[in-house]
Amino acid sequence: MSVKCPICLEEEVTDFITIPGCNHDFCRGCLTTHISINLRGNRLPYCPSVDQNNQTCYNLIAEHIVLENANNLLDEYEFMKIEAAIPPQDRFYCPEPTCTHPIS
What we know:
By secondary structure, this protein is of the alpha+beta class. It is built from three helices and four strands. It has one domain.
């Protein structure tokens, strides 16, 4: 089976990843780059698919996909998931200048 990657527009992609929950397909290289750019920018990686009405999918990319394709960034992913689970008004951070971890 092959798919067309909506990012690079490659027609016959055989090494692809399907995002669980929304079932959008991307070539491994494009999705790995998307995950890395988002995590390095301190953003959780969401499905980058856009529909005909220019609406983004916003399905969070599953942890096992991050682990399989960008495992060097798994710690950042876990940290951002924990941080995102805390409502902004309830977030408090470690006062140490070199630490950015939330505390409860």
